[in-house]
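quick one: manganese (II) ion bound model?
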Amino acid sequence: MIRQFELVDMVKAYDPDIDEARLNRAYVFSMKAHGLQKRASGDPYFSHPLEVAGILTEMQLDCDTIVTALLHDTIEDTVATYEQIEELFGTDIAKMVDGVTKLSELEYTSETSKQAENFRKFLLAMSNDIRVLLVKLADRLHNMRTLHYIKNPEKRARISRETLDIYAPLAERIGMQELMNELEDLAFPHVYPEAHESIMKRLDYLYANTENIRDEVITELEKIFAKNFIDAEVIGRRKQPYSIWKKITYRNVSLENQADLFAFRVIVDDVGDCYKALGVIHQVWQAVPGLLKDYISMPKPNGYQSIHTVVIGPQRKRIEVQIRSTEMDIIAEKGVAAHWRYKNDASPKDGVHYRWLRDLLEILEHAADPEEFLEHTKIAMYQNQVFCFTPKGELINLPSGSTVVDFAYAVHTIIGETCVGGKVNGEPVQLKRILSNGDQVEILTSKAQKPHKSWENFVVTGKAKAAIRRYTRQQQKQEYIRLGEEILKHSFEQENREYTIKSINDAANKLTLDGGASTVFEKVGSGEISDRKVLEIIFPRLKDKKEIKKASSIILDTKRTHKGGDNQLPIKGLTPGLPVHISKCCHPLPGDRIVGIVSEGKGIMVHTIDCEALDVYTEAPEAWLDLSWHPKDEDSEIFIGRADMTIKHVPGALASVLSIIAQDDGNVSNIKFSERSADIFRIELDLEVRDAKHLTDIISALRASKFVNTIERAFT
Ligand code: MN
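yep, here:
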């Protein structure tokens, strides 16, 4: 067991300015707190935090981290409290100890790789200070080193599985290769006992027959470097059994083909020598194409730098060589914990001992390879996320600020839509309760429940928001449709018009609205379109009327005829002195495009431009007179317009038609029944109107009537 003064010396060796008293206080506090507790090994429990602190001094971590390591199990396993630690060691230390405690409370259960990745992200999010994660990793390393004291093989396997799934990849992610290798090799035999045994047997056999190759390679490399004046150290290390096993399993290579039972490493002084060394190796041994990797110019996201090459070495055996500088080697082994020593060797007073923490963040943030970047964790990224668990232990990853409702929708839309309440860590909570990292959330549902619009005010996830909005929009739409229909029925009544679905469908067409009447109702209900506007579209005459006359009687005033036939007609382009007649074939109305035909003895005949009667004059352009209407004034003339319509042969149909015409200030001067059948009348109507628009408006109102099948303006 490390003794008190030894620990202080270990820290002082790399940081002479530490707060010695504080370190001593932590040592004593932890020792007393753990008291007579024992480890599975029979050692006093205190030996564990002490060893964890020792591991962290090897990484040369700052005094706060070492203090945290000493205290890391006190809140969880002893009577010591957060407040006590805060009072004695300050808020920063208390928070870090609390952070490690929280990480330790989490249990990783699921075996799917997606869950493992989520869990790793979760751990990163939880350790908002990366030092918390480092303490946790050192804690795990010591527990793995002493795992064999645990008697229950299932427990050993479970802890080891967690180490392989979660902690070893995390160590790799922050560039701590050495830590990762040790964790993996400690866990391997407990998780895959048979695989481990057979691989170890096989490796023993292979190594027994290849040791001479290793020596041969090393001797040869040393010789060629000396010859080329490169100062290099050559190491040939056995590869980790677990990494060999991973390759066999995932890449499906057989053990015989393993070029890399040994990892040969060439360590030189600087970057320049790395490339020189590579050059001479390739001169002596043939390189295997496609296997050269230059992680010096393109470092891995975790900061790893090295050149890897595979060559055909002695006895025609493939060998893998890694070439790197001393600095790169230390960084590769110790990870970012070693970074600062090389990057910032100046200004030791300026928090140099944890400057690498910032470097780590930088490395993670500015990783070169976007794919790896996404895969590797950017710590800041997960700090605005919260990770919660279902009662079954499934991890749900949500943006921070997420509520119980967000969680419910994240599990399933149906769960979201029917959720009536929730329990967080067993306690009933409100739906808008904001979740914290590590919360276990249980959703209570009811088939009678419907999403509430008010939920929109507190949910934060896009999924929940969209689903609630979709639902409430649907609900609202139904409301609007009901309301709009009521409003329109009422307005029709007010205007003494007959309410028909047909007319509303017509209005929808005129407004170019998809969905027919129900869309019109919806828009009227929501206030987007006024009921008045709909009425005016159906009955255009309403627009010009301030007061609507009640159609108490049907006026068939045949005595009123237009006063055409003289020069008082509001037409421009007439020849003075010539009599003018409005033709009876096409009934031109003010607003229509018109032409005049001059014929001897008859004067000028006014036709619409598309009147069929004009056909006869196409060969006589001298007869044509270019005419147009004067702008209309209030007391303008009355003209006759003609419409051709079919109406239903039912009682009241004709009365209704006439009433519509009267309401719109039209006057029927003549009615001709051109066809009568069992179910329809075909009628030719001559109408007294002010102009073409007046006629079109009346036609529009008639078209909306449920009695009217078809209606068109007639030009014959
Ligand atoms: Mn511990």
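The longest strand covers residues 639-648.
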